[in-house]
Design goal:
Blueprint lengths: L2 H8 L1 H8 L7 E9 L13 E3 L21 E2 L2 E2 H9 L4 E4 L23 E2 L7 E2 L5 H11 L2 E6 L6 H12 L5 H8 L10 E4 L12 H12 L11 E8 L3 H11 L5 E8 L16 H11 L2 H15 L6 E9 L18 H16 L6 E4 L10 E4 L2 E4 L1 H8 L7 E3 L1 E4 L2 E4 L2 E4 L1 E7 L5 E7 L5 E9 L6 E6 L19 E2 L3 E4 L2 E6 L3 E7 L1
Parallel strand pairs: 1-22, 2-5, 2-13, 5-8, 8-9, 9-10, 10-11, 11-12, 12-13
Antiparallel strand pairs: 1-17, 3-4, 6-7, 14-15, 16-20, 18-19, 20-21, 21-27, 22-26, 23-24, 23-27, 25-26
Helix pairs in contact: 1-2, 5-6, 7-8, 8-10, 9-11, 11-12
Length: 520
Amino acid sequence: MKLIELKHALGAGLAAVLLAHGPAMAQTAVTAVLRADQPGARIAPEIYGQFAEHLGRGIYEGVWVGEDSKIPNTKGYRNDVVAALKAIHVPVVRWPGGCFADDYHWRDGIGPRDQRPTKVNVSWGGVEESNAFGTHEFMDFAELIGAKTYVAGNVGTGSPREMAEWIEYLTSPTHSTIANQRRANGRKEPWKLDYFGVGNENWGCGGDMTAAHYTDLYRNFAAFIRVPPGTKTVKIAGGANSFDYSWTETLMAGAAKQMDAISLHYYTIPSGDWNKKGSATQFDEQAWADTLVQALRMDELVTKNSAIMDKYDPEKRVGLDVDEWGIWHDVEPGSNPGFLYQQNTMRDAVAAAATLNIFHKHADRVRLTAIAQMVNVLQAMILTDKDKMVLTPTYWVYDLYKPFQGATQLPIEVASPAYVLGASSVPAVSASAGRDPAGVTHVALVNLDPNRSATVTIRLAGATGKAVKGRVLTASTMAAYNSFDAPDRVKPADFKGATIKGDVLTAVLPSKAVVVLDLN
């Protein structure tokens, strides 16, 4: 492609990004068919959920600074963080853990804050937990950002009675002693409890249980998730650790009728070695390729777990909720190892977008996911440092993908050459599509190749278009990230590289890029 044509297609800025890399002038040719005439399941908005655990600076300093803080806040919640989360339409937040959940006793986090007991967070860093952020703070926070509530209950060190009384405290409109205690603590009306998880990782930090033991405990605890008539709380069973399909089999065989969803946890470890995961920012192209291979295994996990679930739930009543996922790097040098604080680069953004495409593909079974985690922990949306805040490349992926929340999934069949490096091989381009309630079709395209641009030609089956517009997220290097000194290094720009003529859509993608197109 000539330089003048490249500038016309992509805009001068993106053309400069491509031209900065000699090999980027070589293009990958990709074809696809978008089946607009074969609409699939609704893409649940909750697929874009978030996870906020009492871990490191995820809650304290991240979400909550207290009413007396000099950092601008509303009733203790950081104004900048609240505004950023509202801007990406966060649909649901999972809290208080994670491993923290099965050591959490809810009564420690209610009543006057100066009278709440101080505990030790034995799961993460051995630091003191003030319990300043408890039930009222979480539920009010969810209301503040417009999100549904997902509370993880304590099975590991708790009891069915403790759990039942927490649910009564949250949801009861009666004048029982427990409901009146909620009123005395400042909340007259009950909250809406949208999701309740019965334990967390009970095969590990949540109790080191066998699948059979947890299945019996799940049935026991779930029987006491009692909410007022006319309301509904989704019961989520604690599912498998990554590729442990036998856990899914045992739990579905023994308790499918007692659950509304089963969870799944999977973390992408770039190196494949939990003891030396690799730096978030200092990596070579082989680490880029290896990371994407690991991330795309999510499709295998969802496919195989869904097949097991189909045996016991052919109507697909039970959701598969991937309520912990994301890339887990080594912590940033100099930070507390127990706080899991890491930077977030273009590599994280590309992996996140390709994973969201997988969730769209499986929208008939995947009803909720929660990336780990929302602020200052693992693959975060937001990083803070005292009064400063930065939005990560992964945040901007969630911003680009907002139109898919509640859209109808449209199948898209992609014929893509592979991006290969060493023993690692992935399709060069990942895609998904959906039609929103207003009738606008949205197409997400991810170029996983860090060197080569890609020309994607899509035939629209059952649809034609008159106009196309879009936005792109890319960067000059694989390891580009937003810092407190340079917070806008990686952020979306208008995309000029797409054209539509009748039933053919063509897009020229920069290398290492995420593009979302809107077709009218």
